[in-house]
Design a protein that fits this description.
This protein is of the alpha+beta class. It folds into 2 domains: about 200 residues, Orthogonal Bundle (Arp2/3 complex 21 kDa subunit ARPC3), CATH 1.10.1760; about 170 residues, Heat Shock Protein 90 (2-Layer Sandwich), CATH 3.30.565. The chain has 15 helices and 9 strands. The strands form 3 sheets. The chain has a 5-stranded mixed β-sheet with strand order 4-6-7-9-8. A hairpin with a 3-residue loop joins strand 8 and strand 9. Helix 4 packs antiparallel against helix 5, helix 8 runs antiparallel to helix 10 and helix 10 packs antiparallel against helix 14.
Length: about 425
Amino acid sequence: MDVRLLLIEIAEKFGLVATAALVSVLVPQLRNRLLGVGGKPRDALVAFLLGFLLAMWGAKMGEPWMGVLVNVHGIGILIGALVGGPRVGFFTGLLGGLFLTFRVDPTLGWVGVFASTLEGTLAGYIAHSRPSAFQGVRPFFITFALEAFRFLVVTIALLVTGEAGHWVAAWPAHLVQIAGTTAGMTFFIAVTRVVLAREEGAVALVEARAAADHLALESLRRRLEPHFLFNALNTLRATIRHDPHKARELVSDLSDLYRYLLNHPEDAPVHSEVEHALAYLAIERARLGDGRLSVETDIAPETRNRRVPALLLQPLVENAVKHGVGAHAGEGVVRVIARREDDTLRIEVEDHCQGEHVGVIEAGTGIALQTLRERLAKRFGDDASLELIPGADGMCARVTLPWTALDEQAAKSAA
């Protein structure tokens, strides 16, 4: 057979090698082994089955040339050894060698079986004891060395028995087989590494975004705890003297507020967010005194159980009190609204104020709304927004979220 046609045949087989690489990444047991975390017997069994099937395929797809069968059954043996370790390499080499000898090409007899078994065991030992040997460009040289070692073992054994003449004379065919196996094994490792690297990169990105969102949430928690608790306790102390019943209600509100703040998931239903906001506003209403703050809600029934990022309302109502009602001399209203509009969930916090502007009741860092914008951007990208819309007697903070994305989050939570 012309060597050029033989090389084409070997190149066509790389498609199956690539498929085997993808299977190795997608099957959990093989993936665990590739990542170095597999340790269960069934993981080793799956690795053996993959290697043995590829070894049989490589043997059956061999092509005769120069009196020998040029095949790539070594790819399966080496893959089994790489994924499963020395024990899997031993059995893959043994059974792969037996299949080649007694079902495909009996030329080498038990010498071929011995050489395949030795190659698989040695490859598995290298993969188990030195995982770095199959990283970077090293797989090419390791595989070439193992295949050359196998050729040398067979040659020595045949020299001992006096049958090496024809075997040695066919060295170009053996060289092609070594090159084909080396290229196939290198290709297999390259494909698995690329797929794993891309997948791990995607997972790392998701985890980084989740961590950033978690840090932003923790920032809101820490920001609320010190200054608000101090003011709430002062209000509670003043209320106890002249209205014990109201003081008890404030204690309940404060307890509910911090219980929600410290013990809830990353996402929460709209009704929980509203209850948390009302507890906060109840304490602020007592602190401002003289009936200066009224609270109204308009929550559409279909929005009550929609899940939103936790503590979404907290900076909005805090901003409405600090820069709205609390910054004016007269009475004011804070209104919380939630409704569905087409494919979006719209949540608004409005403040309507009376009287002249007397200044902000507390100085702030000015980062609460910016932090919320960043959280929404990381979660929903351009599909979410936070707007501040001036009105005739106050401000409206409007958050728009995609309704479909919230549906998916609710389904995941239910599952």
